[in-house]
Amino acid sequence: MKEDLLHFIWGQKKLHGRQLTSTANEAIYIKAPGVPNQYAGPDFFNARVEIGSQTWVGNVEIHLKSSDWYAHHHEIDPNYDNVILHVVWEDDISIFRKDGSPICTLEVKNYVSTGLLGRYRNLLENARPKFINCEKDFGGIDTFLVENWLHRLYIERLEQKSNFIFELLQKSNSDWEGVLFTLLAKNFGTKVNGKYFLEQAQKLDFSIVRKASGEWWQLESLLFGHFGLLHMDDFPDQYYLHLKKEYQYLTRKFGLSSALGKPDFYGLRPANFPTIRISQLAHLYVKQQHLFSHLMELEDLQDFYKSFHIGVATYWENHYTFGKESKKSQKRLSKSFIDLLVINTVIPLKFCHAKHMGKDVNDELISLVSQIGKEKNTIVDGFTSLGSPTKNALESQAKIQLHTQYCSKNKCLQCALGVHLLNRNT
User: ∠262-267-268 over CA atoms, to 5°?
Assistant: First the structure.
């Protein structure tokens, strides 16, 4: 038994309208369960409960046992002075407010059906290894309910991503162009170098990027040096020496500090080598001087493909690393890579910018992400095996959110699908 079941019973009105009795033998009638509280303080605000012949309006606290009131030190916390009802599974002790007045207690274990308890135990208390708790029932859930929940989860995922973006905005004094550069750098770093690229991008004043973006070789010198790829002293390669000389000049001009680390090449396909990704990033900013405002204006996916249709410097067309020639290719961003940039950078930034401007563009963003093909990962594969194929990037992003924030954390009673399964036949 976990406390989340009691929250479910109370919040889902399983006791609503029933004649109940408190542990002090007072008649209780629930008129309104109140509003769930996601922060510190009582679990439900502004509930309306008739106790005896009097109607009370106030807060409700929920625990497995009455004694948890004291275990959590609520008796000395003024935030709990307005608790009108203590809802518990088991009443093992009388409780009192800070001023010594008793609090009415409702013990619910005798009011819960065996059917609900059985479904709860099947969902959450079976310890066998599984992909998700409800995997036996997932494929049978109504398609409309699943799709509606996935749409809500996608917006929830954007909300979570927006927290980090607004942190970056605060640090950069609301420089949207600078935040875009930081996010792009992270994603151009891919999984292997994303964290390092993010850290380095945050250390680089974007005004310097603006000043260096007039010439591709100057911006490439800045980025190669800042991201730790010009660390060798006497490397016998003319292009390398040219970039390093220019970076030394930029270091003196702008007072730059040397990179403390360097990106990793190990385990990467050559197309994802940091040398190639940095050259592509440099050419993106040379191609479009006001990239943020440009991307914010775009709505059609094909226009994003055109904007990110970039390659590398001529040198990198027949190199993957300094000093070692390879077969010549333009090394343009692939469609799948552009899709990831739109999913992980452009759309979250559009969401935040609209929120900052007081606009609602959720429908526009849902339309955009729905045009992008699904992502390939073990989570998407897991849901496919349960009879839930993924049609597009909206659904793959939503399923990532579902699995990481609900399924893997056993938050089934906060999930619309878990609530649906528990509500069957009740």
Answer: 75
Angle at 9 between CA 8 and CA 15, to 5 degrees: 150
- Yes or no: say if 311 and 329 are a contact pair by the CB < 8 Å rule: no
| CB-based contact 381:107 (threshold 8 Å) | no
Give yes or no: residues 184 and 277 share one domain: yes
Would you state the pLDDT for residue 19?
Answer: 87
Full-model pTM: 0.87
- Could you tell me if 61 and 201 lie in one domain? no
Question: Are 323 and 235 in contact, with CB atoms under 8 Å apart?
Answer: yes
Closest CA to 225 of 203, 205, 248, 207: 248
Q: Provide the domain count of the chain.
A: 2
Q: Domain for residue 252, yes or no?
A: yes
- Mean pLDDT score, 157-162: 96
Same domain? 91 vs 183: no
What does the pLDDT read at residue 129?
Answer: 63
* Residue 237 within any structural domain of the chain: yes
**CA proximity to 175, closest of 265, 293, 298, 254:** 293
- The parent domain of residue 258 ranges over 172-333
Regarding whether 324 and 206 lie in a shared domain, the answer is yes
Q: How many CA atoms lie within 13 A of 58 on its CB side?
A: 17
Q: Band the pLDDT of 425: cuts 50, 70, 90.
A: low
pLDDT digits (tens, 9 = 90+) for 309-368: 999 999 999 999 999 999 999 999 999 999 999 999 999 999 999 999 999 999 999 999
All residues at 6 or more sequence positions from 370 whose CB lies less than 8 Å from its CB, including other chains: 392, 393, 394
Residue-wise pLDDT for 258-301, tens only, equals: 888 999 999 999 999 999 999 999 999 999 889 999 999 999 99
Domain boundary among 97, 112, 127: 112
Find the helix or strand (DSSP H, E) in which 153 lies.
Answer: helix 143-171
| 386 belongs to a structural domain | no
Domain membership of residue 118 (yes or no) is: no
86 and 222: one domain?
no
Please determine, for residue 174, whether its predicted confidence score (pLDDT) is greater than 90: yes
Rounded to whole angstroms, how far apart are CA atoms 231 and 251?
A: 13
Chain centroid, CA 180 distance in Å:
18
| Same domain membership, residue 184 and residue 105 | no
Mean pLDDT throughout 30-34?
Answer: 93
Q: Which of 69, 85, 112 is the last residue in one of the domains?
A: 112
